[in-house]
Specification:
Distance between the termini: 66 Å
Largest sheet: none
Number of helices: 7
Shape: globular
């Protein structure tokens, strides 16, 4: 009897995610994990990019960071909306984690204290790493996510990451 009860707990399919709003598909674990990661990644990269007008010493770095801000703001609003549709909390589950493409609170502190060429170098390195990683993460969401709107948003985020990679200077 115990084996039957425990055996009934095992599943081979994805675990159900939080229910979506009326008329939308359910979010699966890939959708949930993707949103929980890319929302804070995008928010923190946006904070970093917004520092450029006041801190960057290079005109090219200021221009590149400026070109990142508006699309990132637009995408962040959409990511937050998707997160809210999924019923996920606004808290950053990855705060303090060091992972590819994540601008951490320590990185933001360093940017606030860096000056001149060191600020430029650090900012560009962080923004390039972020752009490259969102492309990788978006590919996973597009392949394994269940929510059509979230998968489409991943495609847009991937395109933006590729655009940013192309426009950011390789060396500040």
């Amino acid at each position: 009897m115990v084996a039957l009860i425990l055996g009934g707990c095992a599943t081979t399919g994805p675990a159900p995610g939080p229910a979506a709003g009326p008329g939308t598909a359910a979010f699966n674990p890939t959708d949930v994990a993707w949103l929980q990661l890319v929302v804070p990644m995008t928010a923190n990269a946006l904070v970093a990019a917004r520092m450029a007008p006041d801190r960057a010493s290079s005109t090219a770095v200021r221009a590149a960071a400026s070109a990142v801000v508006a699309p990132s703001e637009r995408l962040l609003k959409r990511l937050e909306s998707a997160r809210d549709r999924a019923g996920l909390p606004a808290s950053d589950l990855h705060s303090g984690h060091r992972m590819p493409g994540m601008v951490t609170p320590a990185d933001l502190t360093a940017l606030r204290t860096d000056g001149g060429a060191e600020f430029d170098r650090r900012l560009i390195a962080l923004l390039r790493a972020h752009a490259a990683q969102v492309v990788v993460l978006a590919r996973g969401e597009q392949t394994s996510g269940a929510d059509p709107e979230t998968r489409a948003l991943a495609g847009e985020l991937s395109a933006e990451g590729a655009r940013e990679t192309a426009l950011l200077p390789t060396v500040a």
